[in-house]
Amino acid sequence: MLFDIDYKITIGDYQLMLLDSVEIHKSVDLLADNCMIKLPGTALNSVLKVEDSIKRGDRVTVMVGYSGNLVKEFFGYLQNISTDGGSISLNCEDSMFLLRKPVADKQFVKVDIKTIANYLVQQTGVNMKVESSLPITYDKFVISKATAYDVLKKMQEETKANIFITEGDQPTLQIHPPYLDKGGDVKYSFQVNIESDDLKYVQAEDKRIQIIVKSTGKDGKVKEVRHGTTGGDQSTIEGNGMDLFSMQKVAENEYNRLLYDGYEGSITGWLIPFVEPTWSAEIVDEEYPEKDGWYYVISVTTTVSSEGGKRKVQIGRKLSNG
Q1: For residue 295, how far is the Cα from the chain centroid?
Q2: CATH of region 5-93, choose from 3.40.640.10, 2.30.33.40, 3.40.630.30, 2.30.300.10
Q3: Domain 99-176 in this protein, CATH class
Q4: For the chain, does the N or the C end have fewer beta carbons within 10 angstroms?
Q5: pLDDT tens figures, 50-97
């Protein structure tokens, strides 16, 4: 049975009636979810002038699905409008857009992640809560000529945390260790709903990894923590200002994220089933049941056009056997 692609996209008070394509990218490794909406440059032989109806900062809601059964795939804000190759591109960002505001310079001493995040939210004036379970403390943390978004991006790069915003009556800035936040469940079968894949089955014993976390203390001296196999492939993380306990936790989390028996790579399917990063995906294969298992979803790229709707799902660490 064939299903027709359907959509409802609103930007401010304006509802799009024409669409070339939409691509939504969500990832635990990125600070913000992004949505790219492409429109034709002309309609009925006239140049399409969307700038007359929409502007930067307008709320954006994207709902897509089959034959009228729509699911909200993205909520955020219009970041900018660009024209390229005869088409119009609307670049959108989730509620992290609200934190792209400058904050006052400040130096913290012996401060945890949640305190820094609360300061950022307070400085921007955004009505947003903060929830954090990340046990990271900085001996020294400096904010200088930066936006709240810039500071959060720096913290994510240094701690490898999952930092994202959940919507609701009041948006909430979430900060958690990798793989701790748990979304829904989804099932993929090579025989049923996987169109293509670039998966490779790997074994932990074949990997030799060493994680190095470095931090410069208040005295200017560089501290270093190592975790993993000596002589293995090294990955270095700059944890500027972190205390030793936090450096150790970052090294352990990153090592555990990379070392496991199971698949790595991505699968591509259709709009059904729905899935988002932080979900647990069960992957089954009737031909190789020994490789069945549950995996943490790292990123999802959803595309919709006249050619149909697809999702590319990148998986991360194996959570359990099937």
Answers
A1: 16
A2: 2.30.300.10
A3: alpha beta
A4: N
A5: 777 889 999 999 999 988 889 999 999 999 998 876 788 999 999 999
